[in-house]
Amino acid sequence: MTQPIANCPNCGAKIVFRWSGSVQTVCEFCKSVLIRTDINLQRVGKVADLPPNSSPIQVGTEGVFGNRSFSVLGRIIYEYEQGNWNEWHFVTIDGTSGWLSDAQLNYAVTFPAQVGILPRECKVGQQYVWDGETYVVSTITKAHYCGVEGELPFKYWDKSDVVFIDLMSRSQKFATFDYSEDPPLLFLGEFVDFDDLKLKNLRTFEGWS
Amino acid sequence: MSTSGPTPAGAPHVRSLNCPGCGASLTVRSFGNAVTIVCESCHSVLDAQDPRLRILQQFHASTSEDPPLIPLGSRGTIRGVLYEVIGFERRTIQVEGISYSWHEYVLFNPTKGFRYLTEFEGHWNDVSVLRALPEVSSGGATLKYLGETYRHFQTADAATAFVLGEFPWQVRVGEVARVSDFISPPRVISSEGSGKEVTWSIGEYLAGKDIWKAFKLPGQAPSPVGVYENQPSPMSSNVKSVWALTGAFLIALLAIAVGAYWIESSEQVFEQTFEFNTSAGGEASFVTDVFQLKGRTADVEVTTNAGVDNDWLYLNYALIDQDTGHAYDFGREVSYYHGYDSDGSWSEGGTTNTVTIPSVPPGNYYLRIEPESDPNRGLIRYGVTVKRDVPQASFFGLAALALLIPAGLITWRSLNFEHLRWAESDYGTAPNDGSLLSSVENIRDSFKSSGEED
Question: Of 1.10.600.10, 2.60.120.380, 2.160.10.10, 3.90.76.10, which CATH number belongs to B265-390?
Fold first, then answer.
C-alpha cells in the first residue's frame, strides 16, 4: 500500500495518504478539505468545527470484520432529529473501502454495491430482494451534513440536506440508499456487535475503564 | 497500514450542566448520546442536543410517588456488560377501565450502547432493540423471529406518564404509542409505534433477585405478583419432554419386567419332599438342611405342594438365618376340596401354595417346619421349594404409577400456570396451537365454563 506524501496547499503541513484510493482528505491542522488530482492537492473548502460527538471510534481505530482486519481512515458526520451519527470510512487489509456506521452506538458495516437502478422514492414497508435476501424499508431519514474528517474514497464536502433510506432484513443484514449522489448509492452490509469487531485504539471515556 | 494520525481532542467526559428551568445541576451521563434529558428537580424536559438545553416540556408529578427502584447513576452488570442507569419512565395502559403501569429503565454503556430494563409488579425484562425484522403472520396472531414462533399476547396504547434522566429518543409526558407484545417465554418481542415507524425490541424475563444482585441494591427485590406474560413456567420447562421421558421410562420398565420374568435369576435354592404322619403323635416340628441365599437383599419365594385331597395341611414355617438367628415366621395352608352336587362338580383351593417373603438379606438359612392336619388323616406327602430373587409384578405396577404421578402433576401445574398467564392477555384463554397441552387445556376450560353456567 502506497503512502503518498504532499503538503497542504493552505498551511504547508505534511499530508499523508494512508490509502492509495483516497480521493479526499482534510488537513488535520487547518481543516482544509483537500482533493487529490493527478499532480497535486487542491484546496476546495474548509471544515467547520465538528459537533461534539461521543463515538468510541476515531481515525486510527483498527478492527476485524469477517476475517479481514481494517483501519479507520476518515468519516462523514451527519445530524438528524435524534442527534448526530458517524459514517466511519475504513479500508481493509486487502484494500477494500467500506463503512462502519455508529448511530447512537448501534453499529453496522456496509460496502458499496451495484444492483441496478434504485427507486427515486419509497415507503416504509416496501421490499427489495438482493442475493436471495429480502430487505424491508424500515426508516427514511432526512439528515443534515455536518462535516468530514480524514480520508474518503470520493469528494464529499459541500453537501447540505441528504435523504437516507435504511432497510432491514429477516436476518441481521442491513442496506442503505444514499441520496446524496445522483444516481443514489446503495450500501449493503449487516448490523454488527461491538465486541465482534475487536476494535483497538478506541477513545476512552471518563469514569469507564 | 499506519495508525498514526489525529485524534479528536480529549476523552469524552461526564458533563455537569445547570437546568435552565430551575438552575439545579444536571449530570449528563451518556456523553452526548441522549436526545432528551429530564431535570430531576423541576421535571423540565430538555433538548439534550442543544448546547443551551432548550426546555421542551414541563410536567408536574412528584418523583417520590413512584421513585425508580434502581436509582439513576447505579451501575450493574447485565449479560457480562457494565451498564449505568441513566433514564427512567413510567408508562400506563388502560384495559377494561383499569390502568396498569410499568417502569422502564434506560441503561447505558459508552461503547456497547443502550439497553433497557422493564418492571411490572416485580416482573423484570432485559430488553434490547431488534436488528432483524420479525415476520408477522397475515392475521397478526403470531410472528417468527430467528426461527422461533411468538404468539400475540396483547396490544394496547401506552401513555408516557412520568420521565426522569436521559433518553436516546424524543420523550414527552403524555405521548401515546401503540404497543404489541408477542410471547415465547422466557422471551417477548414488542412492537412500538404504528405505520411509518415501528420499533421492534426483544425482552427476556429476569428475576428481581438477579437485578438486585447485578446492581447491588439494598434489601430484597419486591416479590412478583401473579404470572407475567413471558414468565417461564417453573414446572413446564417442557411438559412434552417430561412425558417423553416418562414414556421412555415406562417402556424401559416394561422391558425390564418382561426380561425379569424370563431371565432374572429366580434361582431355586432348596427343594425337598417330606412326609407327615398325622397319626404318629409327638413333636412334629423339624428343621431342614442349611441352604445359601446369595447376592443382595431380595425376595424369597416358598412354595408348598401337598398331596391333599378333600382335606388340609397347615404348615408353620420359620425361615431362620443360621448366623444371626433372625427368623421370618409365617404359616401356610394347603387345602383342596372337590365334589359333585346338584349344580355339578365343584372344587375349592388347590394343592399348591406360594408365598413371597420380601427383603431377605443374603446368608445361610434353614427352615423350621411344623405341620398340622386332621389327626386321623394318616400320611401326607408334601414338597417344599425355596426360590431366590423372584420378580414381582406388583413392584412394576407401583413403579409405573410412581413414574406417572410426577408427569401428571407437572402437566396439571403447567396448565394452571398457562391459564393464569393467558388470563391476562387480549384473549383471556390460552391459544389452541394443536398441541396435546392446549387440547387438554381446552377440555379443562370447557368443563369449567359448563360448570359456571350451571
Answer: 2.60.120.380
